[in-house]
Amino acid sequence: MKKNGTMMQYFEWYLPAGMLWKQIAEQAEELKNNGITALWIPPPYKGSSGIKDVGYAVYDLYDLGEFDQKGTVPTKYGTKDELLAAIQAAHQHGMQVYADIVLDHKMGADATETVAAKEYNPENRNEQEGASKEVTVWTHFTFPGRNKKYSDFEWHWNDFVAIDWDEKRDEKGIFKFRGKEWQENVDGELGNYDYLMGADIDLNNPDVVEELTKWGYWFLKTTDVDGFRLDAVKHMEFTFYRDWLETLRKEVKEELFSVGEYWQSDYNALKNYIETTEGTLSLFDVPLHFKFSEASNQGNKFDMRTIFDGTLTKDDPLRSVTFVDNHDTQPGQSLESWVQDWFKPLAYALTLLRAEGYPCVFYGDYYGIPHNNIQPKKDMLVPLLKARELYAYGEQHDYFDHANTIGWTREGDDEHEGSGLAVVLTNGSSGDKVMYVGKKFAGHQFRDYTGNRTELVAIGEDGNGKFPVNGGSVSVWVDKKD
């Protein structure tokens, strides 16, 4: 029997070092029992800050916590053996694992090189500032601690397009190297958003593409992960991941779920990326996250009927991965846009209990974020996760007909015994909504699976029930018989 899939982003920004891979192995059974079917794990390779690196300042893609580099053998999350044990534990409990992949840039080079470069305006990457000059840049990666194990590829300045630091002058800027051009098929923000940070990898260099493809083979065969979360795709030649994924699917794993992070509130940019990549990968529904953030800040002034307007989930649900918050939106981070606590149950109901989208639950919501004194919301999340696993099946009927109070029902199906539900939520005062759950439930009584309401709702002969909800809350009604 196929159950609804639910992903969990299994990290937040401020985790202590050395615990995550071991915790996955310890928690795998509980996570599976609570309805999680896949884990998105952080970048598992050595970063330039060693034991403190969250993983996005990539140093050595081949060092999964195996070599003494950047002052440590383990990564922030543990050793290579602990990583492999965590993946194996997830698999043993029927969960998939998606690894966070960062192929946009590298940091922490082992030596400098001198190259002619032109400086560009950070606010308009098409505008050159001054004449060409020689710069000293950190672009020579030799990985001495690994000593050519797995790959003898050394990175030089010609494998990159640009960098943001001139060691010669002790100067910050955007320096594009001699003979290099910005990749054309990238996001148009700041004129051309090819350059993000560090040493910007040149995806027009065939030697680089060959090495990254070889690494992809090696990584999949070494770790046995089931898919990828792809970082910063709007900064990378759009066709790169299309071709890279197609090659890996053909050669290594046919089923290789992949979701890209394209951080843009304008849905049209996401649509363009999906069309350009020919639907090779899904995208996180960033516009929906911003809707949640906006709704949580506006309170009862936000029109809940519009919550899905201008979102990927509404237009292309099969390519949409929905989320409420993540490591970038959490307090103190670069894209902070935290959804307020009062709205979290509503947002998670909207992602977990509807037919559209592949939902992702955030570690920081499930376990809390001690660094910011954010308390765990596990007690709120587990009933919604279990409701998704057990009841959220069958034909969907929407009741988005009130500015504050909206709802929907799922009629259930024969494959999932006892399935079917009614969801009603509001950003205003308490109320109720008459909704159709199906004539097969005629004469039955429904209970609130969240426990927010204690009464029972009788289903009439016509398959309708009158479902109440508390103010600023959500209720999930299921058949009492189940």
UniProtKB/TrEMBL annotation:
GO MF term set: alpha-amylase activity; calcium ion binding
CDD domains per UniProt: AmyAc_bac_fung_AmyA (cd11318)
Residues annotated as binding Ca(2+) 1: 104, 194, 200, 235
Source organism superkingdom: Bacteria
Matching InterPro entries: A-amylase_thermo (IPR013776), Alpha-amylase_C_pro (IPR015237), GH (IPR017853), GH13_cat_dom (IPR006047), Glyco_hydro_b (IPR013780)
Cofactor: Ca(2+)
EC code(s) of this entry: 3.2.1.1
Position of the signal peptide: none
Keywords, ordered alphabetically: Calcium, Carbohydrate metabolism, Glycosidase, Hydrolase, Metal-binding
SMART domains, per the entry: Aamy (SM00642)
Major enzyme class: hydrolase
Pfam families listed in its UniProt record: Alpha-amy_C_pro, Alpha-amylase
Binding-site list for Ca(2+) 2: 202
Glycosyl hydrolase family 13 catalytic domain segment(s): 5-388
BP term (GO), one: carbohydrate metabolic process
Active site: 231 (nucleophile), 261 (proton donor)
Record family assignment: Belongs to the glycosyl hydrolase 13 family.
Protein name, UniProt field: Alpha-amylase
Organism placement in taxonomy: Bacteria, Pseudomonadati, Spirochaetota, Spirochaetia, Spirochaetales
